[in-house]
Amino acid sequence: MTPDRTIHQKLCELASNLWWTWQPEVTSIFREIDSELWTQLGHNPIQLLREYHSEKLEARARETVLHARIHGAYRRWQEYMQSDRTWGDTHAAVLGDRPAAYFSAEFGIHESLRVYSGGLGVLAGDHLKSASDLGIPLVAIGLFYQEGYFSQTINPSGWQEETYPDADPRDQPMEVALDTQGKPVIVSVQTRGETIYARVWKVNVGRIPLYMLDTNVPENSEITQRLTARLYGGDQKIRIRQELVLGVGGMKALIAMGIWPRVIHMNEGHSAFAPLEMIRRRMKQHGLNFDDALRETATMGVFTTHTPVAAGHDRFDNGLMDEHLGPLREELGLDHHGMMALGRVNPSDHNEPFCMTVLAFNCSRRANGVSNLHGVVSRKMWRCLWPWRKEEEVPIGHITNGVHVSTWLAPQMRFLYDRVLPLDWHVKSGEPEVWQGIDDITSGELWETHESLKNRLIGYARFRLSRQAERHKASDAQIARIQTMLDPETLLIGFARRFAPYKRADLILRDLDILAKIISDTDRPVQFLFAGKAHPADEPGKQILQRIHNIAHDKRFEGRVVFLEDYDINLARHLVQGVDVWLNNPRRPLEASGTSGQKVVLNGGLNLSISDGWWAEAYDGRNGFNIGNGLIHADQGTQDTLDGDDLLRVIRDEVIPLYYERDADGVPHEWIKRMKRSMKTLGWRFNADRMVMDYVSKTYIPASGSTSSALPFVP
Ligand SMILES: *Cc1c(COP(=O)(O)O)cnc(C)c1O
I want to staple 410 with a disulfide (CB 3.0 to 4.6 A). Which of 198, 489, 577, 649 is the partner? Predict the structure, then answer.
């Protein structure tokens, strides 16, 4: 028997595994230790516990009666880690001890680990959390961006400014990954001009290890040390080198650690170089030629594409490819055009650049889009790769994205779920029957819970606004006015996501006179809350942001249109838990899925969305609000006008009347009916457990069943 751990040791252990990030109870323990410091540290428990060393923590725990809760949380964590009765134990046993390897350029797990920029990363994070909950043998590979994506501030003229706070690895829940000999893993990738070295960090996400490669090592030149410093921060040359480290370096790291994956899952094309390293190993170990090794490797490949526009896919020219892939290509026995052919739609067109998406398709027998509609769009878009097939027979299916329930569900709402849903609902939340009990929540209770979450959001928004105002040296009067901004009784519509132009954050601003009239109606007013970052190089995106910022500071809209700076997972959580309505108005069909609206569903908010991505298969006429008729216009301007007009119409004729139709107690019964219908019909479907179960049964298991992946592993 080991002696009992102190509460400090227990909390340090809890902090070292990101499991805590989807345990509201553990989060609240950290917060209660010192809420001011917790906020100041960006919700980082490792830094918090450094401040609250043993004795200081003891004293504080005694004061706040935390002992029992800490012991309880620790016990639950132990049980979770040791549980062997998971969905995966029954349904994914054939994967056995050789895991699926999930590659992604970004992972959005928690605000304190800033290695994500938006939906793609959050989706990857949710995938890992559900894989952990379900007990799927899976390992994840990414890059450690020490400066992450950027922090956003908006200057007085409304222009976005970027800063890059440096994350010290010692403040992160990372440990050095070890190879089969117990030594720190260092991998190297050869280009024409240099050898790029990378160390490997291990982060535990529940039961799932996430390995992050990092080129910040002394073996590298100063420039290469910074190669992985920033996410999506550089030019094409940085991009290809990052992707080389992610794919080839990532695969080398796995093998160095004795992990020989059974499935290679590429989340977007950034990691499509990974199979090439696997092919090289197979050629060397099993004496295969390139074509046979490619065929065998492709049987274990699973590729998820996310980009419904041709221009959005990574493409590299001849020179970049030769410089960076030349040495590997020679080992594969290919000439330059043989290599380029793997990434070309037309292999004999020597001017066509190398496309990572095409490589990914060529290296995976199973490919999918991320919603039903995106599957259709992808088959049309990539039919050119299978010109002999009919469009419906292009081998790209779809698995619609979902969100991780425990991460996005507000604790107050969870109490209601616990009361009306089956006892084990949280391990079966991907099953429809489980959600039928939503009807048993009384209208009054559901409304009260929603109202309290909305109040919490408004309080938080005011706090953020005050902080913004102080930074801009606002007057006392201005800061005082913030405390009256956003009204709990007024319909609250939220919009937050990356400010990519196709998402049209400013669609609602097309007719300012009508908008002004709608929001300032004396009986039935409306208020909007915006947040989001534009990519640093995206001028049109920054202009859209500037427009919204300026409207928010215009007298006509002040206090009714509000912009919150520095959108991240923390702000996202507050928003999706507290809004009445979540607005999503992309230019169809450019939103491959979208996931933020799915987070809103869980908390009782209603979606108001263009029929695109997940919403095109979710809306049934009574579980939210739909904008537009699903048609696509050849002329973008026309499409924007029609959608903008319809958006205002739906808000005025459908959303506002339903929201303000109250009984004598002020309860909007028809609205609540819609809330329940949304939760009941959508909660189980657009759910990361359901998504991961689909990936396992439709892709991982078939991919692992191939004879080739059963070839022996010779380290
Ligand atoms: C969920 C989420 C997204 C995804 O937004 P969509 O545009 O709806 O796909 C982006 N950023 C953050 C921080 C999120 O939490």
Answer: 577
